[in-house]
Amino acid sequence: MRMTLRHVFVLAVCAFAVFPILFVVSAALNPMGTLASTSLLPAGASADNFANLLTSDAYPFGRWFLNSVFIALASSFASLLLSMLAAYAFSRMRFAGRRAGMMALLLIQMFPQFLAIVTIFMIFTEVTELYPAFGFNTAWGLLLLYLGGALGVNTWLMKGFLDTVPKELDEAATMDGASHAQIFWRVIMPLVTPILAVTALLAFIGTMSEFLMANVFLRDTESKTLAVGMYGMIAGDHRNANFGMFAAGTLITAVPTVGVFLWLQKYIVSGLTAGAVKG
Amino acid sequence: MALDAREATRASAHARPRREITTAFVVSRIAVLAVTAAILLYAAPPLAATGSWVALGLLCAVSATAAWLYLTRRFIPAKYLIPGTVFLVAFQVFPVVYTLTTAFTNFGDGHRGDKAEAVTAIETGSVRQAPGSPEYTMTVALRGDELVFLLVDPATKQVSLGAAGGLTPLDGARLGATGKVLAAPGVSVLKAPEAAARGPEISALAVPTPGGLIKANGLSRAVEGKATLGYDATCDCVRGDGGTWTADESRGYFVNAKGENLSQGWQVNVGLDNFSRVLTNPTISGHFAGVLGWNLVFALASVVGCFALGMGVALALHHPRMRGTRVYRIVLILPYAMPAFAMLLVWRDMFNRDFGLINQLLGTEIDWLGQTMTARFGVILVNLWLGFPYMFLVTTGALQAIPRELTEAASIDGAAPWTAFRRVTLPLLLVALTPLLISSFAFNFNNFNAIALTTDGGPFPAESPQVGGTDLLITYTFRLAFGAGGAQFGFAAAISVFIFAIVAVISAVAFRRTRRQEEVYA
User: What is the distance in angstroms between the Cα of B241 and the nearest Cα belonging to chain A?
Assistant: First the structure.
């Protein structure tokens, strides 16, 4: 009896979780491809929306996809490395300004950064003139911008996890003559794979969905990411007509995330809590 | 290399145990120097070419410090902190600090540049065609890199070259049938599409003449005009036919006797005006309180709702005899894997009155996002959908860390399941998860996307189109800063200072409470 109740509850929540996704699938398969003609269950199955999306001239979806995956992978990898380095210092070393530095990281995060977008715009107007390779409409420039947020987001989580790794391990390695760099790369890094997996996933998901900065930064159709490009797809008059294509795009966008998720799945639950417990 | 060798000798002389010079050590130092040199070589020339000496100095100083830091054996923590900090300072701290300084100015539309720029803009903006002055046939050309006008007087067919420096006669030009110049010595004539691409430059170019200014009128005509307004430095005012406007340094405007101002102003320091405007201006402070109230409700409801639902499911699945947990888990995590920006837009369309899924399923015709209450319910529901899988994941993990003996002991002591949950499981969960709940609160307090991509702050009441029913402080501020009603960056920056203060205070209080809790339970 008790078990049945549990199943009913979980099934109800599952239904809540799944029905919007079902709607997206239905819209993606809907041969009419409009919002008005879409219902919860697919009316017919056709791959037209996918075909239209991938061959469209107005919307270079493949290009956007590559841009997004490249930016998300590169930025999560780089920000992971940067915050891991900082977390190692905060967790293992004692130095003047350590506490202040950690508090500063926390506080900076609380300022709504995108309100600084005017300033960022002015900075990158200069950068575009001096170094076109890192200016507006380039993946590299956006990457630099995202790296600005690397430390704040993940350092606390990683530091919390590093604190749980016994210090005796480092000390043993030091006794054996290892330098701090060797300890970091050979001892610490292998031990923190779970938390690396979690932060990698969080960073990946976050970057894939990042809209605001990218929207200001990427103006060229060719340079857009999925978030910016697909937003334009159902903006204004196209809202109804392009909905099927948009839904198809949404499903394709989810593929890399689900891929990364499945790849890192076994680490994720343990990683999330281990970081959370120590805050 | 030489340095390292010397260091090694010195170390042995002092008979202190020093680490050997390993290959990895040498290679890493070479790599650091190489990277620094590469960055310098790439970044320095453009700065030198444009004469940005301050930036160049900064670049050299930063590179030198970085190189030195990685070559020395000292300052080990700094070696690990510097890479992230450089990016943090350049792209977060600096922009934020700069934005904060604009909170004390009137920076915004009409107040973008300094006073000299404002005067130029007022004077050139007031140019009217002088009566009886010739209308030239104009051809756009380049002299080197400089944009110039080739002007043909229709009466005399005399060709002159107009540049920002002035008007000079030009001989040897070949004219076409339309009266435009086809070719001329020393300049290259631009074709129509090329000229069209430089539209803004063309309309910005003003050729000074003894009687006034020559400005382009389209791409093939230019007229001589006179500025109807002129700046007079002796009285620090702008004079014209309409009267006299005196500079008001406290407002950054030229104001006339009636208190009216010219639309073009300049950026001035206004002190705490922006801040006091938030608190004292009745229309704004009224909005502010209302928006803040809803903002708190939204953030709290999102966090509590997501946590309650996520924890509920995690608890339901957390039973040794529960079957199918793997499948359930994957299904429950699905919303988290979908791209949030796209799903927000999908939800927006599902709430659509005419062809949205929600009305279709319920058989109703409710304009969900068109009424304040339903719109608020809607955005919270959407946020719940987006956020609960994360809470589910996190609680699942935290539950596994709670020893089963504790709950078993509680039930042996005769505690009802609810009491056991409330007195044992929940406190332990909260100790583990409060930091995450706090950061989730801070995130949702400023959850721009959740509002901007669904309701965009709406529905807007007819009497105040500035503030909508679901506006968070952040979307409201964004509209102030970049909205259609003219940008008010200074004022928006002041509001973001308030937002920052509110979130920081709430988080600080919450963190303090967590500390105490941890002391009690941990």
Answer: 37
Top pLDDT among B50 and A85 is at A85
Looking from the CA of B496 toward its CB, the CA atoms found within 13 Å total: 32
For every residue of B104-172, DSSP letters joined together read: TB--BTTBSS-HHHHHHHHHHHTEEEPTT--EEEEEEEEETTEEEEEEE-TTT--EEEEETTEEEE--S
Task: State both tokens at A83.
Answer: 């915050």
CB atoms within 10 A of CB A278: 16
pLDDT exceeds cutoff 60 at A105? yes
Long-range contacts: A56-61, Cβ < 8 Å, 24+?
A: A56/A245, A59/A221, A59/A229, A59/A233, A59/A245, A60/A221, A60/A222, A60/A229, A61/A229, A61/A249, A61/A252
Of A171-185, B75-89, B377-391, give the range with the top mean pLDDT: B377-391
Q: Find out whether A148 and B88 touch, Cβ atoms under 8 Å.
A: yes
- Contact between chains at A180 and B76 (C-beta distance less than 8 A): yes
Chain A residue with Cα closest to B479: A115
| Chain-chain contact of A38 with B357 (C-beta, under 8 angstroms) | yes
A65-81 confidence digits (pLDDT tens): 999 999 999 998 898 88
Instruction: Give first-to-last CA distance, chain A, whole Å.
Output: 38
Closest-CA residue of chain A to B508: A107
CA distance B80 to A194: 21
Q: CB distance A21–B503 less than 8 Å? A: no
- Confirm if B260 and B250 have CB atoms less than 8 A apart: no
Identify the three-state secondary structure at position B207. strand
Domain layout of chain A by residue ranges: 60-235+256-278
Whole-angstrom CA distances from B61 to A148, A186, B68, B74, B479 are: 20, 33, 11, 19, 39
What CATH architecture applies to the domain A60-235+256-278?
Orthogonal Bundle (1.10)
A12 touches B: beta carbon within 8 Å? no
The class of domain B129-227 in CATH terms is mainly beta
Instruction: Check: CB of residue B161 under 8 Å from CB of residue B150.
Output: yes
Task: Give the ipTM of the model, two decimals please.
Answer: 0.84
User: How many Cβ atoms sit within 10 Å of the Cβ of residue A41?
Assistant: 10
* Cα A199 to Cα A80: distance, rounded to the nearest angstrom: 7
Cβ of B280: how many Cβ atoms within 10 Å? 9
For domain B282-521, which CATH number applies: 3.30.565.10, 3.40.50.1100, 1.10.3720.10, 3.30.2270.10?
1.10.3720.10
Q: Write out chain B residues lying below 8 Å of A144, CB-based.
A: 87, 91
Q: Which of B399, B42, B415 is nearest to A269 (CA)?
A: B399
